[in-house]
Amino acid sequence: MSHQSALIEDDILGYLQAHENKSFLRFITCGSVDDGKSTLIGRLLYDSKLIYEDQLSALESDSKKVGTQGEKIDFALLVDGLAAEREQGITIDVAYRFFSTDQRKFIVADTPGHEQYTRNMATGASTADLAVILIDARHGVMTQTRRHSFIASLLGIKHIVVAINKMDLVHFDQTVFEKIETEYCDFAKNLGFESILCIPMSALEGDNITSQSGNTPWYHGAALLPYLETIDVSSHTSDDAFRMPVQWVNRPNLDFRGFSGTVAGGSVAPGDEIVVLPSANRSKVSRIVTYNGDLDKASTDQAVTLVLEDEIDISRGDVICGGQAPAEQTDQFAAHLLWMHDEALFPGRQYLLKTANRIVPATVTDLKHKINVNTLDHQSGKTLELNEVGVCNIHTSQPIAFDPYNANRKTGSFILIDRRTNTTIGAGMIDFSLRRAQNVHWQALEIDKTARAQQKHQKPCMLWFTGLSGSGKSTVANLVEKRLFDLGRHTYTLDGDNVRHGLNNDLGFTDADRVENIRRVSETAKLMVDAGTIVLVSFISPFTSERRMARDLVEDGEFIEVFISTPLDVCEQRDVKGLYAKARRGEIKNFTGIDSDYEKPENPEIDIDTSQKTADQAAVEIVAYLEKNGYLDG
User: In the prediction, which pLDDT does 201 show?
Assistant: First the structure.
C-alpha cells in the first residue's frame, strides 16, 4: 500500500496494537441514482492513499476502457465491482469496503440509488452507525433522498452527513448549497436524528473530502474524512441488557457443553446470572470460551461460547439474557415494515418470520397505515407495494423473545420470508407488544374435539373444494353433503357466494380482499372441525398461500384438498351466471382466470375434472375416499 505508518518499520508490534485498538465506524452512502456515491468512496480511498499500487494501475486502465470521466480517473470503478454496474454506470448490489486511517477503522457500505433496489439500501443501513446521504447540487432534494433518510431513521441511524455533491458543476455557488441545506433540514427535523452535517463537495475533484477546499471559502465546517474520524457514536453501539441468541449447541465430547452465538447487546462475565428464553430457566456463566482461550468478559458483537454452571435445556434459537433484565416475549406486536417484493403484502396471508435465530409462521393481521416518504404523512391502505413502509400488527404462531427496536437493533428486527419461494420479502422493526397478547389466553375446555367427534361417530375434516368459477365446485360439494347426510354424518357447507352475504359482505374481489376472504373462512372452518364436524368449503381460493394457510390451521390428515380441475374453456362455455362474458367485456375486474391468476394445486388429495365425470360420479368418488380413509368410521 502506498501509505504506511512509520511504526511498521520501527515497531511492528506497536503498529499492530495501535491498529487493533482503534475505534470502529460503520457507515453507508446512499441517495438518488448518479449522485456520486461510488465516486465518493473511491475518492476517499484514493486521497487517503489506501489503494495498493496494482489496484491503482488497474483503476487507471479500467478508467480508460469503461470509465465515465474521459481521461480522468473514474473513482467509482473501485467500488462498482459488478459487470452490470460498470456497463450501466449504477450501483446494484451493496458493496462493502474496509479501510483504515491513523485515527479510525471503517466499513463503508455503498448502497444503490435506484428505487428498485431500496431493499439493498435497507440491508446496508441495518448495521450502520452513520449515513452519508449524497445530493446532486444540480437537482436538490429528491424523492429517493427523502426515502433513504426515512429508512435510515427507521433503522436507528442517529447521525447524518448530507454530502451536497457536484458543487463544481454549479460553480461552488453558496446560495445553491444553503437552499439545499435548508430544504433537507426542514424535511428531516422530525426524523429523530441527533446530528446533521451538510458539506459542499465535489467527489470527482476531491473538494472537502479529506481537507477543506479553497473553492468553498464560505464553508467553515469539517471536511468529510476528518469528521468521520472524530464523530462519537459509541453511545449507540452498547446496551446495558445482555442478549445472546443461541446459534449452535457446542457439544464436541461428553465433557463439554457450551452455547455459541454472537453477543447482540450488553456484556457478560463469568459468575453473571442469566435467564434463557422461552423456557425461563436460570443459571450462571462459568466460562466464556473462544478459539484463542477463555475471556474475562464478552461484549456486543463478540462471537463466544458460554458454558453454564447448571445443565439446563437450551436449543438453537433460544435467547440467553441477563438475569436481571430479560427480553420480552410475545406472539402479537406492532411493527414498522419495509416491503421488499414486487408482489404486494396482503394482510391475512401467512409468511415466515425470522428474528434472531428463530423462524416461525406469522401473519400481518392489520395494516394500520402506510407512510408517505415525501411528507411523512400517514395514509390508509389495504396492501404494501414494493419499497413502501407501513405500520402493522403481526401475529406469530408461537411467542418470540424480543426487545423494542429502539432498545436493541439486533433483537428488535426481523425479516419476512415467502413460504413458497424462500425469498426475503420484508424487513421489520418491532415497536411494542400488543396488550391483547398479555390479556387474551386460551380457556381450558373439558369437552375436546375428540369427544365431539366420537359423539358423532366420525372423524372431523375440512373438505376444501377449489377450482375456477363454473367448474362445478358448489354442485359437487352439495351432492357430497347430501350423501353424507343420508349416511347420518354431521356436516356443514361454507359456500363462497353464501358467505359473502354475511360474514364477508364487506369484502370485494381485489387480491387483498380475496386473501382476507379465505382467512376468515379458514378460521371458521377450523372451528367447525374442532366441533367434530365434516365441513365442506367451496371457494375459488385462487392462491396457493391461502390454501396452505387453511391446511396448517388443522392437524395432519384433517385437510383434504379437492381440486375441481375443469378447464377454463369448459367453464366459460357453461358460464351459468354470465360472469365470464362480462369479464371478457371488461365489465368485471379481477375475475379469476381472465385478469386475475389462479394458482393450481400441486398435490391435491382428490383431483376431479367435471368435463370428464358427472357431478354424481364426482360425489361418489369423494365419499368413497372418506370411507376408505376412515373419516366415516363410528
Answer: 93
